[in-house]
């Protein structure tokens, strides 16, 4: 039936505040009918009819950027989503938000994650959309979109760009970005030459798409499926595959359904959804970054914030084995995980550990979704199978561990499954301290550096405030004089982050960070004894309490910590970041965006 456009001109009938489609969220001109009239004037410049404009509007968030190869396929994905929307009776309208790529954001992509979440929230809120497809992929984009989506609280469905294919060098498969780091370390150690490293550079990212290992992008894609915020088969299909386009078309159809069920992320997501996500995070040996992102996402949800802490990750980890054999914890690539059944197979395998009543974006529960997606187990010895059964895991439990102790009273994170020298998971040694990234760069390869294989490398001042954006410098390089003698792993500690694609025995996200005036990390000195014990979840500085107190007082009177004055002097977004960011254990979100922050809506 044709839509009767004359209804929009009936001045005796107020436009209801519950209006949908083009009639919702009108621009303020003081006369709502005129606002609608004007809106239709402008959108008709694009050739739409009144009939088409009467349909439910599905917004498609376009994060394409020529600086973002991880999002290279977004134009094709948008076309496929539009097919799905239009074949289901909706009107698809795409619009841009910020795009962030790991290697093209200085000083670090994480600085922009909260900005992208604000961009996502505000554009969803401001524009007349009944549901939104959020297309993201590269590390910070998907968490930013879910943070913003939860806060905007209109119906959303996620679509990721998908992983890239692996490349090959001299008959060995390679892929971004675990092999970027391994090969660079080999080049530093002199075990491969300049011709090899140059040829490898050509092959590490042979197609568009997100990093092809279990880095942060892949981890967050798996988490979105576990949370029920996208189709279960939506996490692993390669970026360049036809399967990825079919996922996109299906996502468009789901978004039209969501526009009529009106199920919002705050209604779909529950504490149980997030417990499922943490179970999946442990079972895939996911990125340490995902812990920060999940805490930020949880912190946006008014009913879940505060019910899950870092200790929840440990509790779930103790009962969850590592099942997916992917780099950096294992040997394979995301395409292998996809060919092993991907998230459908993993979730079936994890069923005894999951809350199957958790809701999903389709309106069905996770259990109901799994019932419609049967699990065909690929034979264990098949070359493409990288999924272990629950009773024969790759690593028994706790792939990600939360550490506590006087060095990190609010916690630190370690990816134990990615340790290259498991002896270091229970280790006591002398600290070699670097005051910041510049100090590290200046001295790490110095022949004078007093360091041996048992030393513990400590890097200060790369936390959320100390180095805004908390850079991924936590993978402190092995001093060249040791790597040349075959040392491949050392215990390394910092208040910063590390790429999810990296491996080693690395303690990260130490909270409070060293630039906090009361931080214990900030007063560690060369030669101090530090002890890490993964079994006890402990990270301790063996310095007497009285001496720690004395050092903290001395430091407060010098320039060690970043004071409020420095934060107030810093202009623009960076200044806002320094003044408003919370600590890593809270997700490094802005205090004014969390569910526990200010509640008055500035749009009201
Ligand atoms: Fe984009 Fe790795 S750089 S996912």
Strands, helices and their partners?
Layout: H1 32-43, H2 50-53, E1 57-62, H3 74-87, E2 91-96, H4 110-126, E3 131-136, H5 141-152, E4 156-160, E5 167-169, E6 172-174, H6 178-189, H7 194-203, H8 216-226, H9 242-261, H10 265-268, H11 271-284, H12 289-300, H13 310-318, H14 334-339, H15 342-350, H16 366-371, E7 400-405, E8 408-415, E9 426-434, H17 437-443, E10 456-459, H18 480-483, E11 491-494, E12 506-508, E13 529-533, E14 538-541, H19 545-556, H20 564-569, H21 572-580
Parallel strand pairs: 1-2, 1-3, 3-4, 9-10, 10-11, 11-12
Antiparallel strand pairs: 5-6, 7-8, 8-12, 9-13, 13-14
Family: Belongs to the IlvD/Edd family.
GO molecular function, one term: metal ion binding
Keywords: Iron, Iron-sulfur, Lyase, Metal-binding
Question: Could you explain the architecture of this structure?
Answer:
The mean pLDDT is 94. The protein is of the alpha/beta class and 604 residues long. It contains 21 helices and 14 strands. Strands 7-8-12-11-10-9-13-14 form an eight-stranded mixed beta sheet. It is globular. Strand 1 (57-62), helix 3 (74-87) and strand 2 form a beta-alpha-beta unit. 35% of the residues lie in helices and 12% in strands. Bound molecules: FE2/S2 (inorganic) cluster (FES).
